[in-house]
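Researcher: We're reviewing a set of sequences before deciding which ones to prioritize for further study. For each one, I'd like a predicted 3D structure that I can look through quickly. This is Putative N-acetylmannosamine-6-phosphate 2-epimerase. If possible, include the structure in token form so it fits the rest of the review sheet.
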Amino acid sequence: MTHPMLEPLRGGLIVSCQAYPGEPMRHPETMAQVAAAVVDGGAVAVRAQGLADVQLVAGRVDVPVIGIWKDGDDGVFISPTLRHCRAVLAAGADILALDGTVRPRPDGLSFAETVRRVREESDAPIMADCDTLAAAVAAAEGGADIIGTTLAGYTDARPRTDGPDLNLLAEVVQALPGVAVVAEGRIHTPAQARAAADAGAFAVVVGTAITHPATITGWFDGALRAR
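Model: Here's the predicted structure for Putative N-acetylmannosamine-6-phosphate 2-epimerase, in token form for your review sheet.
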């Protein structure tokens, strides 16, 4: 059964509002402004990274905030431990997102045990950022409300596709009927977003193509310089 908070997200666009350390836009106030702008454009939810961003964004938008805390850059680093998960929710996230792969977590807890402990303190929906069909199935069995294809191609489990991994998306949708399966990762055009929806995605997450000016500028610059 779908969590009541998720029904308004069905068929909609979720925008990931993140900037990386050292970039000009890497400031919570900037990300909060970006989040407000994408909601004006029709986003049904936003995804925010870092406790300060989550807190500020949650105060600026009237749509659900999917919160994460990236800690590190190798292995499991998306809300990697129970401590991180608790902090993201305490910062004001409406939905908690965390690594949903089968890789070992830094605190030694399994995904299912992490979810169980979170649920003792909060009824917020939980999103699992997965990389394979096996991980998606395990995360759903472990209690995740949302299964995202977020990490497909970003671990060693699957090759990185040029664009979203629609094959994985279709496999997960088929394997998990009734589960909110969200397409995320390398969705760079409206046509790709539409293709993900047509493949059965409950909702579609777009980040870089909307909220990362340096990358978007690079795409245009590269096209102009190509010979």
